[in-house]
Design a protein that fits this description.
The complex is a heterodimer. Chain A is mostly helical. Chain A is built from 7 helices and no strands. In chain A, helix 1 packs across helix 4, helix 2 crosses helix 3 and helix 3 packs across helix 4. Chain A starts with 8 loop residues before the first helix and ends with a helix. In chain B, helix 1 runs parallel beside helix 5 and helix 8 runs antiparallel to helix 9. The chains are: A mainly alpha, B mainly alpha.
Chain lengths: ~190, ~200
Amino acid sequence: MNDNQKVPLRHLFVSFLKIGGMLFGGGYAMLPLLEREVVGRRGWCTLAEMTDYYAMAQIIPGVIAINTSMLIGQRLRGAAGTAAAMLGTVFFPFLAILAYAIAFNQMAEFPVLQHAMSGLRPAAAGMLLGVACKLYRRTGKDRLGLILPILVFALVIVSGMNAIHVIVLGIAAGLAWWGWFQLRKRQVKR
Amino acid sequence: MGIFLKLACVFFKIGLLTIGGGLAMLPIIQHEMVSRGWLTNQQFLDIYGIAEMTPGPIAVNCATFVGYRTIEGQIPGVFWFAVLGAATATISVCLPSFFCVNVFGSFWEKHRDHPAMVRVFAILRPVVSGLVAAAAVSLCLNCLWQSDSFQAVIQRIPHLPTLLILLASFGLTLWTKFSPFLILLGGILLGIVVGG
């Protein structure tokens, strides 16, 4: 990408509009779309760079798909590019849910819709349980990954603790672990 | 107008405190929405299902829906206010990342491999896994017994078709590569056939 050749903001917006409109399922679903549009069609970055953005998006707060879009927008056009990429990505999802929210009130008049929801609900609940098991299978590769999820699970189920507090505690524990490690290293040196 | 500010604050907080994306967000969104009375557990499941079938990340979908419904409930009758509420919540959930990307973008990139960062993530990943499991179990109990109290669970027998759909969806998700869209569509069709 030549630096003095600016990418028009509307190209950024349109490209992410397309990606956002096809973004079904979790974050991984975004990679093939990005690869086709941003790497292949537009040539805005290489495949390796795209993977780096995706990895970086994981450690920035917020939605991974939006973060990835914004990182690419930021690199191409700074803050304006970030905004264009973000608005493009959320546009179609926004319209789809808006339509559902508007239809929601009329739902009581249509028993078919209610029956449909009564089938969708257990399917969604079962799916989430399946996703939780998959996630545990993936994290449970070492002792920490096997035990910690069960402790957190029990803590939340029994005490009803706020998920945000658990996350903040987790971050604090990670920092404390690092601090303890540094301290020990210093003692060993002495 | 206070309600707009409140929506913005809550979704800003959700956007700020969730590192690791959609799955990490689910338990937080569930807690924030249900404890504020903005959504019931049932409505949350509905949105999760809808979110999986429509494009876009669940946090964004949830923000749009809750923004619309909350404003509609508080200021009824004005359609554009509700749309504005949906937009407020949707933008708010993205704002923290917007700032982080622009202000700390290069900082994150440089320090991704810092030992402190590595340790924080080594802890956070299993923590999130436990949180998601807890949210999933409480939502499943809610779906089957309309309550997650232990008493309700041992006293009543759940609606059989609901239980079967739930178990089928669980099995298909865990052991096959069926797309979520198809699984949920199956649930919807079965729901219509069984008739609630």
